[in-house]
Design goal:
This protein is mostly beta strands. Helices cover about 5% and strands about 30% of the residues. The chain is built from two helices and 17 strands. Strands 5-4-3-7-12-9-10 form a seven-stranded mixed sheet, with no helix packed on it. The longest helix is centred in the first third of the chain and has 11 residues. The chain starts with about 25 loop residues before the first strand and ends in a 23-residue tail after the last strand.
Length: about 325
């Protein structure tokens, strides 16, 4: 629970969004009792009123997600029964591609010479994914719901929650079919089995056509999206900053030797009263961060305030961040 109470069992709640000029590739997911881990999520595509930066003939959707064979509550009960997280046997999830178990995903059909927009969504909870179509170039035109200037890449490396749109043009000939490759790999230490997991699926130009084998160069030889070199399509200038917030990722050892990560010096705990209710009922006090509970580490921003957020990650693991309902300008990145 964050902004509002959960929807009670058997009830419903209607959300009405005013998108105005917001469009792109998104996804929605549950926020209660790890429902998103158990599959309560789905893509959300908003089509824009203006033409895309590159025209295309057809669009296709691809989704990646990590998949555990038991529900989260069952795994949590087992962890709690151990009394010490260090006794936990490593448990590596499988992967779903377009909702199907790994290599069981249906073929993607390409028509020779046709230009496709692939909307790719990583609906993962923990695992990162890499996606390539050997023998085909990808032109990146969108990242996380924001149109970008065209950027040619060899593949996509995606953390949980990330979305990309790429343009892929089919070959002129239907002589061969091709395979796409998906790699699933964890950002956690406790793993077992073959890591990373490799999956593949068919790019079908013609039923029964032979599959063309293409040698795979190392990842280091390929071009992957780097947000630092991407440019937004509207080329908005850097905004003047009104306020600066600096956050550092820290790891804590808590009960049962679990080591959750946190931003700042304390772990986030859920609000007692939904923040939206507090903001609408506290009058002038709604601008005081303490009314939301000290355990929430809340920041209260002014309307239209431009905030520079610096996130320091001293850990060896990568972390992705997203801001619900906001776009960001990436000003600087580096070690």
């Amino acid at each position: 629970m964050v902004t509002q109470c959960g929807i009670p069992p058997g009830e419903n709640f209607t959300y009405v969004f005013e998108t105005k000029d917001q469009f792109g590739t998104f996804w929605i997911h549950g926020h209660t009792r790890h429902q998103e881990v158990d599959g309560l999520h789905t893509p959300l595509i908003i089509h824009g009123r203006k033409p895309p930066v590159i025209d295309y003939d057809e669009e296709l959707l691809m989704t990646f997600e990590d998949w555990y064979t038991t529900e989260f509550a069952v795994r949590q009960a087992y962890i709690d029964s151990l009394g010490d997280i260090r006794k936990l046997a490593p448990n590596y999830p499988k992967a779903l591609i377009n909702g199907y178990d790994g290599n069981n995903t249906a073929a993607i059909t390409f028509v020779p010479g046709k230009r496709y927009r692939l909307r790719v969504i990583c609906m993962s909870i923990n695992n990162w994914f890499k996606f390539r179509i050997p023998g085909h170039k990808m032109t990146l035109i969108e990242a996380d719901g924001v149109e970008s200037m065209p950027l040619e890449v060899d593949g996509l490396a995606m953390g949980p929650g990330q979305r990309y749109s790429v343009i892929v043009t089919g070959h002129d000939s239907a002589e061969f079919n091709y395979m796409y490759n998906v790699t699933s790999y964890p950002q956690t230490v406790r793993i077992s089995g073959p890591v990373p997991l490799e999956y593949s699926g068919l790019i079908k130009y013609r039923e029964g056509a032979p599959v063309k084998t293409i040698s795979a160069p190392s990842d280091e030889q390929l071009v992957w999206p780097e947000e630092a070199v991407m440019q937004v399509a509207d080329k908005q200038a850097q905004l003047p900053v009104d306020r600066r917030i600096e956050l550092t990722i820290n790891r804590f050892t808590v009960e049962r030797h679990m080591e959750p990560s946190a931003l700042g010096n304390s772990l986030y705990k859920p609000v007692i009263v939904p923040t939206l209710y507090t903001a609408l009922s506290m009058g002038d006090l709604a601008a005081n961060s303490s009314v939301y509970g000290s355990q929430t580490n809340a920041y209260v921003l002014k309307h239209l305030e431009v905030v520079e957020i610096v996130i320091n990650n001293p850990e060896i693991e990568g972390h992705t961040f997203h801001f619900h309902g906001h776009n960001v300008q990436i000003i600087e990145t580096g070690p």
